[in-house]
């Protein structure tokens, strides 16, 4: 299965389980994430949602281009992009704290998933970045919009997007994207991070989340995310993007 779901003591963990594909997102992963989000929206037994990847090399390498490269037109791309864009918006607006437990590389859409979460705990060996620009597209699941909402200095957020390259963990911490950098066990890092949070009544967490979500509603956050999705869909149709994807897949298959 492309993902696993674990719910223990109020901590629900969603693990992308495609290690051989660098935990790239396909349709099955999207549906699994939707399953988790729907459960949390309809049940009160989850206090934290943790998103992570299998293994130690990759958190998530973004969308699986070997599957999504068949999407050629703007409309075809918009179907996939908007599906994941809506899933990530629902993830970002969940009433419980969400934690990206970044066990390895998070690039492209993987960086968008992490940015949609409230907190980012990054393994010291991990690199993360919005590399979509190398494929002649922008972030397409809402990640750029979330990045500008995460409290980074504007120039640092903009630089992260336009650099289109992975940043090392220490730089991610320095610019404020990573809340903590950890060595060793990701499970231990998670337990240490939520040690005090889990002592607080969940109603308090939900009340604080609502303060942020109220701001997002006032700022038309959903509409802004979908504009980002539409922009990416337009660029997806370009010759520059298709050429970049073909070059990427050719290089990948020749290894």
UniProtKB/TrEMBL annotation:
Q: Which domain of life is it from?
A: Bacteria
Q: List its EC numbers.
A: 4.1.1.94
Q: Which reaction does it catalyse?
A: (S)-methylmalonyl-CoA + H(+) = propanoyl-CoA + CO2; (2R)-ethylmalonyl-CoA + H(+) = butanoyl-CoA + CO2; (2S)-ethylmalonyl-CoA + H(+) = butanoyl-CoA + CO2
- Is Zinc among this UniProt entry's keywords? no
Keyword terms of this UniProt record: Cytoplasm, Lyase
Q: Is Lyase among this UniProt entry's keywords?
A: yes
Name one process (GO BP) from the record. Answer: fatty acid beta-oxidation
Where is the protein localized?
A: Cytoplasm, Cytosol
List, alphabetically, the GO terms of the cellular component aspect. Answer: cytosol
Protein's name according to its UniProt entry: Ethylmalonyl-CoA decarboxylase
Organism, as annotated? Lysinibacillus sphaericus (Bacillus sphaericus)
Tell me what gene encodes this.
Answer: crt_1
């Amino acid at each position: 299965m492309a993902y696993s779901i674990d719910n223990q003591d109020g901590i629900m963990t969603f693990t992308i389980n495609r290690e051989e594909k660098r935990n790239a997102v396909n349709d099955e992963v999207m549906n699994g994430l939707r399953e988790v989000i729907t459960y949390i929206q309809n049940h009160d037994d989850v206090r934290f949602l943790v998103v992570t990847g299998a293994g130690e090399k990759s958190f998530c390498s973004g969308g699986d281009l070997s599957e999504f490269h068949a999407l050629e037109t703007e409309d075809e791309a918009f179907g996939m992009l908007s599906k994941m864009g809506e899933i990530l918006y629902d993830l970002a607006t969940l009433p419980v704290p969400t934690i990206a437990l970044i066990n390895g590389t998070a690039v492209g859409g993987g960086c968008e998933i992490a940015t949609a979460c409230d907190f980012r705990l990054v393994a010291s060996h991990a690199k993360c970045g919005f590399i979509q620009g190398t494929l002649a597209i922008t972030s397409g699941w809402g990640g750029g919009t979330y990045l500008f909402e995460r409290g980074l200095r504007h120039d640092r957020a903009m630089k992260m997007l336009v650099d289109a390259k992975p940043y090392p963990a220490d730089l991610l911490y320095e610019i404020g994207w990573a809340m903590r950098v950890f060595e060793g066990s990701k499970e231990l890092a998670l337990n240490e991070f939520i040690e005090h949070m889990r002592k607080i009544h969940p109603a308090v967490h939900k009340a604080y989340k609502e303060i942020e979500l109220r701001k997002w509603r006032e700022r038309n956050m959903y509409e802004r995310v979908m504009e980002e999705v539409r922009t990416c869909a337009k660029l997806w149709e370009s010759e520059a993007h298709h050429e970049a994807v073909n070059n990427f897949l050719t290089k990948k298959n020749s290894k």
